[in-house]
Amino acid sequence: MKLKKLAGLISLLCLSPAWAIEPFTVKDIRVEGIQRTEAGTVFNYLPIKVGDKMDDQQAAAAIRALYATGFFKDVSLEVEQGVLIVLVRERPSIASIEVNGVKDFSKDQLKDNMKYAGLAEARIFDKGALDKATQELKRQYVARGKYAVSVTSTVTELERNRVGIVFNVVEGEVSKIKQINLVGNQAYQEDELLDMMKLSTPDWMSWFNKNDQYSKQKLSADMEVMRSFYMDSGYLEFNIDSTQVSITPDKKDIYITINVTEGAKYTISKVGVAGNTLIPKDEFEKLIQVKAGDTFSRKALTETSKKVGERLGQEGYAFANVNAVPEIDKVKHQVAFNFVVDPGQRVYVRRINIVGNDKTRDEVIRREFRQVEGAWFDSEKIKKSKQRVDKLDFFSEVDVETPPVQGTTDQMDVTISVKEKSTGNFSVGAGFSQGEGLTFSGGITQANLFGSGNHISTQINTSKVNQIYSLSYTNPYFTDDGVSRGFDFYKRDTNSSSTAVSQYSSKTMGGGMRFGVPIGEDESISYGLAFENTELGLLTNPSARLVQYVNTFGTTNSNLLGTVGWSRDSRDSAIYTTEGTVQHAFAELAMPVFDMRYYKLNYQHQWFNPLSSDITLLLNGEVGVGGGYGGKPMPFFKNFYAGGTGSVRGYDASSLGPRDLNNQVLGGTRRVVGNAELLLPFPGVKEKSVRLSGFVDAGAVYGPGDLPGSAGLRYSTGMAVAWFSPMGPLKLSYGVPLNKQPEDKLQRFQFSLGSMF
User: Fold this and answer.
1) For the chain, which has fewer Cβ within 10 Å, the N-terminal or C-terminal residue?
2) pLDDT tens, 52-81?
3) What is the pTM of this model?
4) Domains along the chain?
5) Which of 653, 642, 704, 702 is nearest to 675 (CA)?
């Protein structure tokens, strides 16, 4: 049979009758020209099988199908005595990819990004993928402000139908914002408006915050900040007409121009309500944040709609819609608002689902929920439930979703998603002082024993000052209504010879039981009873007061302690606190069963106040008072102390307060501590587990007025970092005393590190 060529180009098949073939039956199929591709792959994509009848249309379809695989750069068909011959030329494969001139990125990282564009070693070379990878590489540099970046690619043919690709990158310098111009502002000075923006011209902090580098996302955010400022200040018709961003030919300087129209300042003429409010009128009016005569504020309107929606949510109306409909008087520059309330249909919770708790039992989470299944939806109970689960401190993330049940209009589910964190803690602590050098302590705690929510803690401290062996166990739900029960056992040996404290030694053993009773959503009281026995010893040059106590009451003291406490915790989160208060009051009384007669009262109040979305002010105050009764003094080893971590940073631990004639600390019967701390995110770190703070501490311990150091607050200031690291909680602080006295001992740098398991 005469050899007939079927054409490599589909257009020739369609346009020229000379290339047409007579239909024939395919007796066999042979593939020629393949090197890397398996013949089976070609047969798999070929839409023609042995025994099929082939014509012009099938031939064209076969060529199109093989081209579409991307494996071949040329495809043609031939027929010889009923045998279909498929002739192909494979595309080259990529033998190597090199990136030269890169400093800002890891080369391996860039190669990984190229894979998403279809460019990787051992893959088939595609010119389109090469262009896409080149543009993506440029985009990454532009995102870092390097608009002058140059990226060129070179493709070199190699043996065995392979190619080598080389990217040559000239990174260039970062383009800086040279000037930001505002056009159209009259009510506010340009400097005042520019201070609201994150983008800025270079200043002394630009090396750190990079705010002098242009970003489209940052500019959009700045425009929204400016819009909110005007809209909250009465400028209802404010508009950003346009923004122009230009760059100099050398790609070094960027100029930004923002054109605005302020419009007139509006006041509110009237506020009305329409629709079905479902709540008493006087209660509804308290939720409205605006009134006639006020300057227009979009923020106040949004807050009103939010509060009304939340209040209706407490009644089960989860999908309530509250809209403020305006009536604008452009002549008088006044606007009236009518709040239209559509509560929608009341819904109830069908099911509460918990996901993500691989270790913690469901019941531990469910017992913290105030929303129950089968009850009407209550947004306030949902919020409170999330906070209570958060405060368990078993999870690094707690999220709540309320999806509607498909096919219904009056049901929804509640899904709480948690991300468990390590609740076992092996902690070591260290501090450094000129007198004592490094000091260490350690302890083991499991706050979620076997996922039950029960707490067990052991402490082992073998420092040269304290040797402590203790075991504590707490069941937070000893009863179903939340009464907790705990046990404590401890052995504590103290040797103060290497500290600033007056010279004595003590050996104490004790144990007791305690209970906690909830009296409110965020409040509880506690009470307990414990027995302890203390053996005292006096070291070299002890204080006369210590000698007098031992001579009067002996070296062995037994004590039956009664304790009563009250606490209130309204923090929004235990993971990342931004607002709320924590209060603790605690009383300790030596019962008149044994020789000792004393009491100790303590009170602590913490207040978290959000100054912005990511900055929180923490104020902490503590007071303590103690004394003897029944004609007996308060034991010196029960005295209050201050100084160091947890009180006044920058001073040596327990070094503040009354001293004896040898300048050794005695402790006192009264203690006061105050702290002001500004909590903010660590610059450049997005994780909420890291927080930076600046602090000012103050504190003092008071005793009898005839002792040196009995009066006078000590102050310090400094910086601290708290990080919930993969190894455990890490805290660093550096304190600088502000009014150091000659007798004071300092401990400027302190840190503690825990290892989680």
Assistant:
1) N
2) 888 888 888 888 888 888 788 888 888 888
3) 0.60
4) 4-90 (3.10.20.310), 93-170 (3.10.20.310), 176-261 (3.10.20.310), 267-342 (3.10.20.310), 348-414 (3.10.20.310), 475-485+493-756 (2.40.160.50)
5) 642
